[in-house]
UniProtKB/TrEMBL annotation, chains A, B:
UniProt cross-references to InterPro entries, sorted A to Z: Ala_racemase, Ala_racemase/Decarboxylase_C, Ala_racemase_C, Ala_racemase_N, Ala_racemase_pyridoxalP-BS, PLP-binding_barrel
Function noted in UniProt: Catalyzes the interconversion of L-alanine and D-alanine. May also act on other amino acids.
Family of this protein: Belongs to the alanine racemase family.
Phylogenetic classification of the source organism: Bacteria, Bacillati, Bacillota, Bacilli, Bacillales
Species assigned in the record: Mesobacillus campisalis
The protein's name: Alanine racemase
Documented EC number(s): 5.1.1.1
Amino acid sequence: KGLFYRDTWAEVDLDSIESNVRRIRTLLPEKVDIIAVVKANAYGHGDIKIANAAIRAGATMLAVAFLDEGLSLRRKGVSVPILVLGASRAEDVNVAANENITLTVFQESWIEQAAAVLLPGKELSLHIKVDSGMGRLGVRSEEELQSMEARLKDDPRFRLTGMFTHFATADELDGHYFQKQQARFEKMISVLTTKPACIHTSNSAAALRYPGAYFSAVRLGIAMYGLAPSFEIKPSLPVELTEAFSLHSRLTQVKKLQKGDKVSYGATYEAASDEWIGTMPIGYADGWLRRLQGQEVLINGIRVPIVGRICMDQCMVRLPGEVPVGSAVTLIGKQQEERISIDEIAAKLETINYEVPCLISSRVPRVYKKDGKIVALNNPILKGDCPS
Amino acid sequence: KGLFYRDTWAEVDLDSIESNVRRIRTLLPEKVDIIAVVKANAYGHGDIKIANAAIRAGATMLAVAFLDEGLSLRRKGVSVPILVLGASRAEDVNVAANENITLTVFQESWIEQAAAVLLPGKELSLHIKVDSGMGRLGVRSEEELQSMEARLKDDPRFRLTGMFTHFATADELDGHYFQKQQARFEKMISVLTTKPACIHTSNSAAALRYPGAYFSAVRLGIAMYGLAPSFEIKPSLPVELTEAFSLHSRLTQVKKLQKGDKVSYGATYEAASDEWIGTMPIGYADGWLRRLQGQEVLINGIRVPIVGRICMDQCMVRLPGEVPVGSAVTLIGKQQEERISIDEIAAKLETINYEVPCLISSRVPRVYKKDGKIVALNNPILKGDCPS
Ligand SMILES: Cc1ncc(COP(=O)(O)O)c(CN[C@H](C)C(=O)O)c1O
Ligand SMILES: Cc1ncc(COP(=O)(O)O)c(CN[C@H](C)C(=O)O)c1O
């Protein structure tokens, strides 16, 4: 109470994060490390809390999308190795070196630029990214890879600590393209003079399905959050996963409309008879997209539909009868015997589950739970413009 | 440089905000005030910078969706009146009173609850919200309105400073429902013993189209940001509006694919011949939704399509030929003679323009410009968990 002033919040169950990581840990040989993928504010769950939960459960490294995300974690006290998976500007290598953040390199020209600005006495840890068929980031030619290795070995300020690639189809039942990528990656490894210490290829889907692709570590994202990498492989996952994220609100007004009365913008929804309508304070600026019109939410353990257009900060539901103002609404998660999963929301949005928690905006406070009790809260909106 | 480390950012042109407000100001009688609607982080543009620009251009009050947003503005130094448009918990009235933030009331029972907790000697400014047909928040019955007025007058700690309603269809060519709402609101005003000082009904669409609905103030949202309230009325707006928001990135890798090579997850995109593909560091966790696959972006003043699935932090474009790594990409805005408007993105997403900048997440730094020069930058990700 008093830490956020609007009754809309997300809950993140840290026990679920930990148990997901521990369960997956049991599948892996002891010498295979877990890199917890906490980019995009830990898929919307909150970077530092998830990082710490993953580390408690056995992760030994963190991966982020870009340097700012790594710096954010360092400032919040993270001391384990951090790998930036995406591109970084060569001109920023001293920042990475100072904070002991490992960068990803995939172009020879970048190494030249980095060498020109990296201050004497600094050490920069690098992983080489190979594009084995994702067509996104990565070196594709064996010649370039060889000269990158030579160039890095040539300069004592660079430490080539790892090499990796990323799979495009590890979450599909058809394994052909996956195998092609794996073979291509192995060919690329074979052209190196020395294998780097940390070789990794597997995202969640591969970690759960392809023990042959383990190498030294797996990069665990979606499964850590308790979500299946795809609908296709969901029925055949080798471990149980528990969704950590849920989304909640409370009714701010409950009113009886007369037959014919309209609801929301465009007056597109019309009460078919006398109807009880509830208003709740969440809308598309919270990441509860307009396209979720018609989606059901839970009130008193019962599914009720969103009616009328979803507004920027609010939306309306049709209630089975009068319920008190302040009644709890669950938009994602469990209420009594009913449950709305992230997969259900993703299906309604015709997208993948990954996108759903990422979309829930920073305007929605994250409440963290352990043993069913609130242990922390993050409400960015009240942090103000403090110094960076 | 050095204030954000990934080459993806939004630009907000503060001169456009000011000129939009000034142009609309010229349409209004002198005694009609402008309330700048800066809820939802100023529709994604950034609350404090937009608030100050609007005030410079003549706005005298700010409106937000909920109390946290008002507190955020106060902490950033705003001293003009602030109105919370949405519901607030009765138990939080002392916070509002302390910060001189005006709340919205629409239920008699709320007044009782507020009276029970408001400390002696405090003063709370309130606007009554009337539901004249939006079916969202607001008092609907004349009797309840009358007893609310009486109850507020009865207690010296409450100051009834305003009354308002909101239109559902002011942005439609057909004015019937609008007129019905206006008549209903006027009826509601007529049952009051004393008219409050500040009566307001008009959003941007009504402010631009219905001088008869001005009362004491208009609540200006979307038009201030330079966007038309709807496609329907866009051709007939009485003033020119300039879009303030643009979105930018830079290519991080450029590679030649062979015919048959695949791009991104699912390997769904296949190069039809040898093709140049560029990667850029923006994805759905930035609010650049997966549904934008196929959307064009600008590089060297030319439209190029996004190919393959959009990833969490990255997406790929098909280039007309080789272009240098680091080339500027404009996703929203102008490049040379070409322009991609927010309306174009909204159409691709089958949504309204309002939703688009709201979706661009806090991971994307906002760069503020005046006279074509950068005057400020906000990169929330590097603010860390500072005390709230
Ligand atoms: C390089 C890399 N490694 C590992 C992961 C973890 O994947 P998963 O969440 O499936 O375990 C990702 C996530 N990718 C996101 C989803 C993307 O780029 O869209 C990644 O880009
Ligand atoms: C009460 C109220 N007043 C004024 C405005 C400004 O409207 P406009 O941006 O059209 O000028 C809004 C915005 N509404 C948003 C868009 C919503 O609730 O969805 C509002 O809710």
